[in-house]
C-alpha cells in the first residue's frame, strides 16, 4: 500500500473534522427539535362546536339510544320459533321376558312432533313499523340534545372571550396606571407631590393588580369549563380560543325567525313524529287483538303401530280482545297531538323571548358605541392631562379613572350579554345560520 495515499494534509483534515462536527450537530438537533417543538392549539367557535359534537361523552351516551332503538327493530321483526317436542314412554326397569327389541317395538310409545305459531293481523309488520317510528323519534330527540350542547358550548366560548377581554382591559389599565404611579413617585421625590397623595395613588395600584389576577382566574376557569364540554381528552389543557368578540347585527325579522324555527327545531320534529309513533302503537294494539293460530304435527309409534296426528288451536276471543290497550293507545294519539301543539307554541315563544332579549341588548350596545365609550375615554384623558400638569386634583383624576374602568367593564359585559342573546336566538331557531 502506498503511504502517500494515507497522508492527509492539515488543511483538508481541519475541513473534514469541521464537516463531521456540523453533521453530528444536525443529527442531534433534528430529533430534539421534533420532540421539543409544540404547536399552540387555537380553536374557533365553529371548531369548538364540532369538537363537542364529536367528543362530548354525554352526547355520545345519548347517541347510543339510537342504536338501542335500532336493535329493538331487529327484535320486533323476529318470527316465532317453532317448538319441537318428543317423548318415549313405558320404558322397562328390568329386562322383559320377550327381550328388549320386541318389548320396545310392541309395548312402548314414541311421540315426535312440532308446532308453530302463526301470527295473524300482521303483528310482525306492525311491531316493526312501531319500532321504526320510535327510532325516528329518538333520532330527533338526540338532535335536540345536540342543539342544547351547541348552545352550551357557544355560551362558554363567549364566557372565555369575555374573560380574555377583561384580562386585556385589566392589563391595559394596570400598565397605564403604573405610568401614573411612576410619575407620582418622581413628583414625590422632587417635592412636587405630598406623601399622602402619593400613597393614595400607590394604594390604588393594588386594585388594578387585583383586577388582573381575578381576570386571569376567570379566564382559566372558563377555558376549563369549555374543555369539559368539548371532551376532556380531545384537547390539551393549554389551548386557546380565537374569534371576534364584537357586535354582529341580525337582519331577520321575528316572523322570519319563527318560520325558520318551525322548520328546523328538532324537538318540534320529535313531537310531530310522536304522533306517527302513537298511531303505530294503536295499529299494533289492534293487530294484537287478532287471535293467533297454532299448528301442530305429531308422529306416534304405539304398540307397533305408526300413526300421524295433525292439530290446530286458536283462542276464542270471548272476553279478552285487547280492548284496554286499544283504548289506551287511542288516548295516546290525542296526547301526542296536544304535545305537538304545545311544542309549536313553545317554539314561537322561545324565538320571541330570544329575539326581544337580543333587541334589548342591541339597544344597550348602541348606547355605548354611539357615545358613552368615547365620553369615558376623553374624560379620562383630560383628567390625566390636567392632573399631570397640576390643573386637577388627585380625587378628580382617580374618579375619572374609576369611571373609565367601570364603563369599559360594563360595555364588555353588555357585549357578552348581546352575544349570549345571539346564541340563545340561534338555539331557539334551531340553526346557527341566521342569514
Short description:
By secondary structure, the protein is of the alpha+beta class. It is built from eleven helices and six strands. The strands form two sheets. It has a four-stranded antiparallel sheet with strand order 2-3-5-6. A two-stranded parallel ribbon has the order 1-4.
Strand content: 5-15%
- Helix proportion: over 70%
Order of helices and strands: HHEHHEHEHHEHHEEHH
The CATH superfamily bears the name: Outer membrane efflux proteins (OEP)
CATH architecture type:
Up-down Bundle
- From the spread of the alpha carbons, the general shape counts as elongated
Uncertain spans: 1-11, 26-37
Strand tally, please?
6
What is the CATH C level class, in words?
Answer: Mainly Alpha
Q: What report would you give on this structure?
A:
With 435 residues, the protein is an alpha+beta fold. The chain has one domain (47-429): Outer membrane efflux proteins (OEP), CATH 1.20.1600. 71% of the residues lie in helices and 9% in strands. It has eleven helices and six strands. A four-stranded antiparallel sheet has the order 2-3-5-6. It has a two-stranded parallel sheet with strand order 1-4. A hairpin with a 2-residue loop joins strand 5 and strand 6 (305-313). Helix 3 crosses helix 6 (123-190), helix 6 runs antiparallel to helix 7 and helix 10 (323-388) runs antiparallel to helix 11 (394-429). It is elongated and about 140 Å long. The chain starts with a helix and ends in a 6-residue tail after the last helix.
Amino acid at each position: 500500500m502506498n503511504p502517500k495515499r494515507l497522508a492527509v494534509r492539515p488543511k483538508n483534515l481541519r475541513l473534514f473534522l469541521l464537516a463531521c462536527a456540523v453533521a453530528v450537530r444536525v443529527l442531534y438537533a433534528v430529533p430534539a427539535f421534533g420532540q421539543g417543538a409544540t404547536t399552540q392549539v387555537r380553536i374557533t367557535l365553529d371548531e369548538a362546536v364540532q369538537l363537542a359534537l364529536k367528543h362530548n361523552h354525554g352526547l355520545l351516551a345519548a347517541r347510543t339510544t339510537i342504536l338501542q332503538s335500532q336493535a329493538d327493530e331487529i327484535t320486533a321483526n323476529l318470527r316465532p320459533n317453532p317448538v319441537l317436542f318428543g317423548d318415549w314412554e313405558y320404558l322397562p326397569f328390568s329386562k322383559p321376558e320377550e327381550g328388549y327389541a320386541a318389548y320396545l317395538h310392541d309395548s312402548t310409545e314414541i311421540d315426535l312432533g312440532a308446532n308453530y305459531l302463526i301470527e295473524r293481523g300482521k303483528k310482525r309488520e306492525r311491531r316493526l313499523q312501531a319500532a321504526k317510528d320510535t327510532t325516528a323519534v329518538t333520532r330527533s330527540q338526540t338532535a335536540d340534545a345536540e342543539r342544547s350542547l351547541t348552545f352550551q358550548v357557544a355560551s362558554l366560548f363567549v364566557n372565555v372571550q369575555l374573560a380574555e377581554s377583561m384580562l386585556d382591559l385589566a392589563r391595559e389599565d394596570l400598565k397605564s396606571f403604573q405610568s401614573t404611579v411612576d410619575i407620582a413617585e418622581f413628583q414625590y421625590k422632587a417635592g412636587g407631590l405630598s406623601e399622602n397623595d402619593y400613597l393614595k395613588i400607590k394604594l390604588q395600584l393594588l386594585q388594578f393588580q387585583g383586577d388582573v389576577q381575578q381576570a386571569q382566574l376567570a379566564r382559566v376557569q372558563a377555558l376549563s369549563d369549555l374543555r369539559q364540554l368539548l371532551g376532556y381528552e380531545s384537547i390539551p389543557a393549554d389551548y386557546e380560543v380565537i374569534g371576534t368578540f364584537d357586535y354582529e347585527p341580525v337582519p331577520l325579522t321575528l316572523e322570519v325567525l319563527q318560520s325558520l324555527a318551525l322548520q328546523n327545531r328538532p324537538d318540534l320534529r320529535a313531537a310531530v313524529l310522536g304522533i306517527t309513533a302513537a298511531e303505530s302503537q294503536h295499529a299494533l294494539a289492534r293487530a294484537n287483538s287478532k287471535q293467533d293460530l297454532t299448528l301442530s304435527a305429531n308422529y306416534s309409534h304405539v304398540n307397533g303401530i305408526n300413526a300421524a296426528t295433525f292439530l290446530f288451536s286458536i283462542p276464542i276471543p270471548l272476553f279478552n280482545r285487547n280492548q284496554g290497550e286499544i283504548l289506551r293507545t287511542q288516548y295516546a294519539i290525542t296526547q301526542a297531538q296536544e304535545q305537538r301543539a304545545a311544542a309549536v307554541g313553545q317554539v314561537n315563544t322561545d324565538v320571541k323571548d330570544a329575539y326581544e332579549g337580543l333587541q334589548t341588548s342591541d339597544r344597550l350596545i348602541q348606547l355605548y358605541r354611539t357615545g358613552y365609550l368615547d365620553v369615558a375615554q376623553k374624560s379620562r384623558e383630560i383628567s390625566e392631562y390636567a392632573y399631570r400638569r397640576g390643573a386637577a386634583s388627585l380625587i378628580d383624576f382617580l374618579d375619572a379613572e374609576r369611571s373609565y374602568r367601570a364603563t369599559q367593564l360594563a360595555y364588555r359585559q353588555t357585549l357578552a350579554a348581546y352575544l349570549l342573546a345571539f346564541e340563545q336566538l340561534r338555539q331557539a331557531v334551531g340553526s346557527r345560520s341566521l342569514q
